TrEMBL record:
Classification of source organism: Bacteria, Pseudomonadati, Pseudomonadota, Alphaproteobacteria, Hyphomicrobiales
Name of this chain's protein: Uncharacterized protein
Length: 88
């Protein structure tokens, strides 16, 4: 019966949220620890009104007091403080 419903991994979509919850619940990943660590890294940038900060080899993208994503240092991010993405 399992062969009848078997699917390859390329046919199954696994969301980022599911991956995080799996790591948290099946492998003991302390999500709160990392949330607090990222918040501490972002604090000075948030206070300065920055759209992002580069720390520990990555860029934290900020919108107000929210870290919206984390990019590799070499990836360019547009300035999210203005509607068209250009702060000038």
């Amino acid at each position: 019966m399992a062969d009848d419903i078997a699917a390859t991994s390329s046919e199954i979509i696994v969301t980022d949220r599911a991956i995080i919850r799996y790591l948290e619940r099946a492998h003991g990943l302390d999500v709160l620890h990392f949330r607090n660590h990222i918040a501490a890294l972002a604090a000075n940038g948030v206070k300065a009104g920055a759209s992002g900060v580069t720390v520990e080899g990555v860029k934290l993208v900020l919108q107000g007091n929210t870290v919206t994503t984390v990019l590799r240092r070499e990836w360019h991010s547009r300035d999210l403080r203005t509607k068209d993405g250009d702060s000038t």
